[in-house]
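Methods — Computational structure assignment.
A single polypeptide chain was analysed. Its primary sequence is given first, followed by the predicted tertiary structure written as structure tokens.
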Amino acid sequence: MKVVVVLSFHTMMRLVHSQHLRHSTEIHVMILEAVLCTFVIPLNAHHARPVKSGDSVQVSLEASELNIPGIYLIHDFVSAQEEEQLIAAVDARPWHSLAKRRVQHYGYEFCYHIRNVNTEQQLGALPSFVTCITEKVPLFKKLDEAADISLDQLTVNEYPRGVGLSPHIDTHSAFEGSIYSLSLLGSCIMEFRASVGDEKDTNFVRKALYLPPRSMLLLSGEGRYAWQHYIPHHKVDMVNNTIIERGPRRVSFTFRKVRKGPCPCDYPQFCDSQR
């Protein structure tokens, strides 16, 4: 069995001068917009080892394939030009460093130590450079009539290659029912898991969705309130039979609506307001 590995041009040049090239059985150099190279190698070759076979899960390319109510994905939500402008805008502003990634907050600051926001400390309106995103958010109304489109909080995350996100459900009392996340520069796999029994059960149903650059994800309803979401800490992602190397940098724009009262959701076992 063979798989396809997508490598950057820089990585390809390093491999050309390394002994790893000896393991390849076929090499196809393709001149694409980003100058990508595709190496076809045996599945059990050294390059595939960062993805643990025992930890794999079938990856969906469309949110509808997950069969999780409330999860939607729109591809090419912004253009390549808008992506470039958005990255330039955040890079012109100060970043705050966490343990493994950098963040920026707009509207309200998310306090990681309490996993909530201080609603009495507003940072101001969302920046004007995200208008190209917020003006398109109503498109999700066609997919989810209950989707919130009035958003007042933005967290920008910068993920270096290999850095992911730990499993969690966004605090119910912190935000309303719709969470939007735009992926820029790099792709990743986002996994979702739900306990088979009660919330303390360690047996999970797991599903995975591939998030390409410039795609916008919506978590709402059951998908927002009852399923944990996370990004595996991988340097390459296995998308079915294709291994895709993560780029040196992925930036996400996550939009939310800050909740000003207790959460009245239908998932009390996961809700901090109803415990």
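Note: The first strand starts at residue 2 and ends at 8.
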